[in-house]
Amino acid sequence: MGHVTAVLGSRWWALAVGVVVTVCAVLLAVAAPTTAHWWVGAAALAVFVVVYLVVGRRAADGSPGAIAFIVTSVVTTGALVSVDPPLAVFQALAMPSAWVLTTSRRAAIVANAFIAAATGTGFFVALGPAAATSAAVTVLFSFVGSVALGLWIWRIAEYGDERARLLDKLTAAQDELAALHRDAGVTDERERLARELHDTIAQSLAGVVLLAQRARRDHAAGKLRDDTLELVEDAARAALSETRTLVAGSAPVELSSGIAEALDTLAARFRRETSVAISCDVALTSPLDRDAEVVVLRCAQEGLANVRKHSGATAVRVTLVDEADTAVLRVEDDGRGLDPDAVPDGFGLSGLRARLALVGGTLELHGGPSGTTVVARIPRETTA
Questions:
Q1: How many Å apart are CA 83 and CA 23, to the nearest integer?
Q2: How many C-beta atoms lie closer than 10 Å to residue 213's C-beta?
Q3: How many CA atoms are closer than 13 Å to the CA of 316, on its beta-carbon side?
Q4: 44, 89, 232, 358: which could join 211 in a potential S-S bond, CB 3.0 to 4.6 Å?
């Protein structure tokens, strides 16, 4: 067939050739009418074996070697059947090999027609005109059976090739989609860091510069006071604190041991760096997939970063539970409540909403006098 190359060199075809040639040799030795007939049949088998070993097992479909092997099969079939009709069993090898070594259905059918014609000629030579009808019926059944089986196998092979092609395209599309998701995540993270740097550290450093300029003018005028230097120091300390907060909020947390351990590690780091009491509770009925775990961890990091920077909380609670068909992450604090409608982009929530949207999730923010709660919901069907 057109998608097969040098298939006759496989061990299964070598076994098939060996079995059919052996059967024909045995039949020839037992039933050859005369010594001359035996020599004709033996010579035909010998030529066929030589052509198979030299050309056939290395032949690619449609190549000159393949054509030579098919022609040899046609001649060998005719010669063997003319020696002894039971040697028509050789068709069991000749006809399938014609299907394998041709490049189209039409070429395979034509090759099988020549093999059938050679078989019919052999019957005519061996049995004479009296057996023409029965020989024709036998040849016709062999030919029709070969064509039907060949077309069926050819269709299966084409179906397999098509499935393989579609699978390759699907794999390529999935790889491309994964790359786009990674790129989108990197872009979102860069935008978030840029906003954080602009809204916090850049503003603080700008204040330090202004205070330093004021101190320099006061020094030049002989009016430099200690409270001016104290303001510079306080502003620099604030910038340093904001830098440490930003680094801590973006520090990587390993997910190799699962989301529960990752959230415990994140909570322990938050407790150590802020001295704020924090509890973490994970109760899932089944594990999340990797993408969902990454999103949950990122939501928890951003939620704790906002608690660290804005809430003034004394206690924080992180929970991850299943509610119906949804995995729900909550980050609750007892600090200053935020108005969800007045939260600026600098809080990083817009990036989290975009990240959650990639897995079909949503983000909610609830604020009040008793604190703030960030709620991330991820549909379970996307995490199965």
A1: 15
A2: 10
A3: 29
A4: 232
Structural tokens at position 219: 């020094």
Token readout for 183 is 């790129």
Is the dihedral angle over the CA atoms 38, 41, 44, 50 positive or is it negative?
Answer: negative
Q: How many CB atoms lie within 10 A of CB 60?
A: 15
**Chain segment 356-372, per-residue pLDDT in tens:** 887 889 999 888 778 88
Token pair 């007045």: residue: 342
d(C-alpha 1, C-alpha 18), whole Å: 22
Residue type present at position 330: R
80-87 mean pLDDT: 88
- Radius of gyration of the CA atoms of the chain, in A: 41
Query: For residue 360, how many C-alpha atoms fall within 13 Å in the half-sphere facing its CB?
Result: 10
Q: Which tens digits make up the pLDDT trace of 11-53?
A: 888 888 889 989 999 988 888 888 888 898 899 999 999 988 8
**Burial environment of residue 379 by CB neighbours within 10 A (0 to 12, 13 to 18, 19 or more):** middle
> What domains does the chain contain, in order, with CATH numbers?
7-127 (no CATH), 255-384 (3.30.565.10)
**What tokens were used for 363?**
């983000």
Backbone angles phi, psi at 361, to 5 degrees: -95, 175
> At residue 241, what is the residue type?
S
Pairing of strands 326-333, 277-283: unpaired
Mean pLDDT of the chain: 82
The reported pTM is 0.46
